[in-house]
Amino acid sequence: MIAKPTGLQKLPSDLDENRLPQQIAVIMDGNGRWAQQRGFPRVMGHRKGVDTLKELLRCCRDWGIPGLTAYAFSTENWGRPSEEVDFLLTLFERVLRQQLSEMMAEEVRIRFVGNLEALPESLQAEIASAMEQTANNQGIEFTVASNYGGRQEIIAACRAIAQQVQEGRLSPDQVDEALFKQHLYTAHLPDPDLLIRTSGEMRISNFLLWQLAYAEIYVTDTLWPDFDRHAFHQALLAFQQRDRRFGKIRK
Ligand code: IPE
Ligand code: IPE
Ligand code: MG
Q1: Is 29 a catalytic residue?
Q2: Which domain CATH number covers 86?
């Protein structure tokens, strides 16, 4: 599908193409509130949120941002009413099936991170098929965090490393940051430069706890279904104004 002309197809001239974030993480929050403000059931916000995500992916592609990781479902989201959880899981499955041909046409490479084994089998099958079919695509690297929890990810890494130590295949002094990273779901990805959270909440809600160590955090009051190219432009402008010191000082 051809993206609707919005006047922001090209990188806006006030952004420096050499200082764009290479990996962006996004907490897509505020779907429920968006729907409730309109008198709709919460799940309508989730449906609208899919369009926002598609548009953001296209925008990343148009503006030359190579990687996006989106938080779709947290390990804590199982605690919501079962109708909402079921709606979300069914929505993921349907969207994956319906969007595959577009992802192929747009060269999107999709991967999922999280405890995928606990998802419904039909969704797991759809995930496996989408990952396999898009594996050689050369466009944007799109990661979806589903049944993802940062603490669980760290525990899983610790267990895998402890197992190797117990089997005598690794010694404790070989455990360093690089080795630890290899055991995370995101082993293949660079750490995010920028974390965007919509709908105003100033928290990371168990997202990418290890990987976000030095990400710039941008929170906007805009609700996820309303987060458009203009809102993304604002996030990138804010990012380019940050002074990333990484613990050092400027001389
Ligand atoms: C984010 O929107 C989507 C998911 C967590 C799946 P919410 O559903 O959290 O919307 P609010 O925060 O209740 O408005
Ligand atoms: C974070 O949003 C999870 C996702 C966007 C998938 P939540 O709405 O679940 O987070 P809290 O409850 O406000 O911390
Ligand atoms: Mg929320």
Answers
A1: yes
A2: 3.40.1180.10
